[in-house]
Write a structure and sequence with these properties.
Layout lengths: L1 H20 L4 H14 L3 H19 L5 H14 L3 H14 L9 H14 L3 H11 L8 H17 L3 H13 L8 H21 L9 H18 L12 H24 L14 E6 L10 E4 L7 H5 L4 E9 L5 E10 L2 H10 L4 E4 L11 E9 L3
Antiparallel strand pairs: 1-6, 2-5, 3-4, 3-6
Helix pairs in contact: 2-3, 3-4, 4-5, 4-6, 5-6, 6-7, 6-8, 7-8, 8-9, 8-10, 9-10, 10-11, 10-12, 11-12
Length: about 375
């Protein structure tokens, strides 16, 4: 045993002597630890190491050296770790120091990080800041930062609400979809969904009661149809839990559904009949694919649900999108909520009744098709 321990002890002694002769560089040590934590996606450790690196830089170099860069690193990782409030101060410092060209930080990039932190804490100044940077020259900025900032601005402005700004921000995000952390197809699809949602909320007005024009319908329909078509290839329907791509696709369908429900309210559209009169269900057979037997075109068999009284009183409308997995007899083995728009009362109403539902072939479906598989249910609520 001692034959193996002695060389190890010698190695430790030699290594210690070498370290003693090399000046310690805590800034570099903590920065390397921060990078390593980022590479293994340990955001808590990365945030702690970024804070230590910045503290060491401030102690050694004040506002010089790499303090501006390290401030921006700390703000960014705190944003990634859903700690926007704590990201504001280092982002502000990075922006202030970036005015000096020797700081090594692009003021536009610092502005995007600070703006994202501010809108995450519902600060209007952040929205103005992001809009200013995103509508200026963007050459040289990372696509990932542009996309994240534009998407965050779109979400914030939709809630503000500043729907013209929201739509414009989502258009910018779509243009820079290559920067999406989940890939350009996902990035473009969810940006298009956001754009269509902003259009819908802007055109239908407070409470969604403003009458739409034909040109409005065509424009919104084009955007939302494109969003769904873009996201559909990301769906697989092979896992029990819906994937991020499948939920994003369902979100696009839900906004499409709101447009269809609104049309039903206004024009008695053939696409959706009134919930208080006839069922407005749509059932899509989505898989998983079976090369030997086609999945049936089917419909939901269910008892009539009451329209939530408060929603009917205010002429509110909505749509619920959920996944159903059926067996060969049409019995529903499982259900998974995917997306909804409109009052939560609609979702509660569906969930209170869906246990007794089943599916059956539509009358003209092939008798050789299979009922088993995954279906997307679109349940519409629309009333005059």
């Amino acid at each position: 045993m001692m034959r193996f321990l002695a060389p190890l002890a010698l190695a430790v002694c030699v290594s210690g002597a070498a370290i003693a002769q090399t000046p310690s560089n805590p800034v570099l040590e903590h920065f390397r630890a921060y990078r390593a934590a980022m590479e293994r996606n340990d955001l808590a450790a990365a945030s702690a190491e970024a804070e230590e690196a910045l503290s060491a830089s401030q102690a050694r170099d004040g506002d010089g050296g790499r303090t501006a860069i390290l401030s921006l690193n700390l703000a960014t990782v705190r944003l990634m770790n859903n700690n926007a409030a704590a990201a504001i101060q280092p982002a502000q410092r990075a922006l202030a120091l970036s005015q000096n060209a020797s700081a090594g930080v692009d003021p536009r990039l610092a502005g995007l990080v600070l703006g994202r932190a501010q809108v995450a804490t519902n600060d209007r100044a952040g929205g103005d800041r992001l809009h200013t940077v995103l509508t200026g020259p963007l050459d040289g900025l990372p696509e990932s930062e542009i996309y994240a900032a534009a998407f965050d601005l779109g979400v914030w402005a939709m809630a503000a609400p500043d729907l013209d700004l929201s739509r414009a921000a989502f258009v910018i995000a779509e243009t820079h979809a290559a920067g999406s952390p989940l890939g350009p197809v996902y990035g473009r699809g969810v940006a298009r969904t956001g754009e269509g949602a902003a259009m819908f909320l802007d055109i239908t007005g407070p409470g969604g009661l403003r009458t739409m024009r034909g040109t409005d319908v065509d424009a919104m329909s084009d955007v939302l149809d494109d969003a769904a078509a873009t996201l559909e290839p990301l769906t697989r329907w092979t896992t029990d839990a819906p994937t991020i791509g499948e939920r994003a696709y369902a979100d696009a369908l839900a906004w499409q559904g709101m447009l269809h429900a609104k049309l039903a309210v206004e024009w008695l559209s053939d696409f959706v009949t009134r919930q208080t009169n006839e069922y407005g269900d749509v059932l899509d057979a989505v898989g998983p694919a079976d090369q030997t037997q086609d999945q049936c075109a089917a419909r939901i068999v269910r008892e009539r649900m009451p329209y939530p009284p408060e929603e009917e009183r205010h002429r509110n409308y909505g749509v619920i999108i959920f996944e159903m997995r059926a067996d060969d007899a049409g019995a529903i083995a499982s259900r998974a909520f995917l997306s909804s728009r409109g009052s939560d009362a609609f979702r509660r109403m569906v969930e209170a009744h869906w246990e007794d539902w089943r599916i059956e072939r539509i009358p003209d479906a092939s008798r050789s098709c299979r009922l088993s598989g995954v279906y997307l249910a679109h349940i519409y609520f629309a009333t005059s």
